[in-house]
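input
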Amino acid sequence: MNKRTLSLANLPRKREAGVAAIELALLLPVLIVFLLFPIFISKVLWHYTVAQKAAQDAARYLSTVPRSEMMSRDLAAEAGDLAIDIAGREIAELAPDLEIIGPKAFCDAESCGDLIAGRVPATVRVRLAFTMADPTGLIDFGWYGLEITANHTMRYAGN
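output
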């Protein structure tokens, strides 16, 4: 073979040099978005799962408060406050600066401290809500962030 044949065989390779770098530059932003989206969704689901578990644990505590305490308005209110404190401590594991928005502990359909004296509830319910912000700043949830709400209702065990 002569030199001319060898140089013509190498000619297409020289024209394709750098194509992979250009393809990577074009596709890298798309790949990053496709990788960040599942990570973000998993973070939202993780926050929701922690909130739901906190509401469940608080409702479980509230459902096992002794009957004698639930018959007293003051003690029932204290039990409701303690249930909210239990949920708040569990949510604080996500981020210490998260603020729970209007946490409520309900005995039947009213606040646990508003029960008629001498009456025990049929069900107890704990409601929690907090806002989750995107720390990367890639997704805009508006001024207040993404609100995550968790409710859990259980039968009162003292019945």
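quick obs: The chain has a mean pLDDT of 83.
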